[in-house]
Specification:
The chain is α+β, with helices and mostly antiparallel strands. The chain folds into 2 domains: about 230 residues, Hsp33 domain (3-Layer(bab) Sandwich), CATH 3.55.30; about 50 residues, CBS domain Like. The protein is about 35% helix and about 30% strand. The chain contains 10 helices and 13 strands. A 6-stranded mixed β-sheet has the order 7-6-3-4-5-11, covered by helices on one side. The model has no long low-confidence stretch (mean pLDDT about 95).
Length: about 290
């Protein structure tokens, strides 16, 4: 099943649901993630895609979790076109399962810190908000952020299922938000449904697509699907962009690289490696001087 996101509405409710198994595996491969990092990064990227679904084209969102845990900072960038990239400070973290027998994402992320959400909407300055972490498990923290910082009551579910070979076998998520004026009857019905819902990663593992997830979430509702968007892990780094970063170095630093005869720069978001030989470095230095 290809990764995808579906936007839908029902009486008094809007819902976004996504299947993200392939892009989580892409992130695991690029960053060599152990299960704790895979789950934390996968949930964060999925959450970013769901929250980006509200944006207009050419806008973007960045979500950062920094809770003081051994994973360090977990970051994801996403666009409404369905592209996401992400990274984790320390991908090689081993922790025992938590008290529920599940991957201890909260222990990896930590709770002594903030979740920060930055929206790039084309304005001169991006719009940022943050709030304290609740449990470091990502979904509850995003739900709390939406309520506290954006005054948007929501239900958020995120899941990443990782097997013994460190491969993701099911990943996805959803955000459900009551619309203004939703009746108490609708809210009660929705809450009753959510209490019965299994983990979203298990839904994906058993073959449900995003529409199938929505149908389970909104059982008894008349659902209208609005759009479907393909999703993918995609970084916007390039050799030209990296060259621009090198051009911003101090003269002493760029001269040192020229003396070495080569440079290798690794994008921390996707792990792509860019090689620059002596001639390329000299051209970058000369261009920088002209500017």
């Amino acid at each position: 099943m290809k990764d995808h996101l579906v936007k839908a509405t029902a009486e008094g409710v809007r819902v976004y649901a996504a299947v993200t198994t392939e892009l989580v595996n892409e992130a695991i491969s690029r960053h060599d993630c152990y299960p704790v990092a895979a789950a934390a990064l996968g949930r964060t990227m999925t959450g970013a895609l769901l929250m980006a679904a509200n944006l207009k084209n050419e806008e973007a969102i960045t979500i950062k979790f920094n809770g003081g845990g051994p994973l360090g900072t977990v970051t994801a960038d996403a666009t409404p076109e369905g592209y996401v990239r992400g990274c984790v400070g320390e991908p090689h973290v081993n922790l025992p399962l938590n008290s529920l027998g599940k991957i201890d994402v909260g222990g990896g992320v930590g709770t002594n810190g903030l979740v920060t959400v930055t929206r790039f909407t084309g304005l001169k300055e991006p719009v940022s908000g943050s709030c304290e972490l609740t449990d470091g498990e990502i979904a509850d923290d995003l739900m709390n952020y939406l309520y506290v910082s954006e005054q948007t009551p929501s239900s958020v579910g995120l899941g990443v299922l990782v097997d013994k070979e460190f491969k993701c076998i099911g990943a996805g998520g959803f955000i459900i938000q009551p619309l203004p004026g939703a009746s108490d009857e609708v809210i009660d019905k929705l809450e009753s449904n959510l209490r019965k819902v299994n983990s979203v990663s298990r839904m994906v593992e058993r073959g449900l697509d995003a529409k199938g997830i929505i149908e389970e979430l909104l059982e008894g509702f008349e659902v209208s699907c609005l759009s479907t968007t393909d999703l993918a892990f995609r970084c916007h780094c390039s050799k030209e962009r990296i060259g621009g970063v090198l051009a911003s170095l101090d003269k002493q630093d760029i001269d040192s690289l020229i003396q070495d005869g080569q440079a290798e720069v690794v994008c921390h978001f996707c792990g792509e490696k860019y090689q620059f030989d002596k001639e390329e470095l000299q051209a970058i230095a000369s261009s920088s001087k002209r500017d």
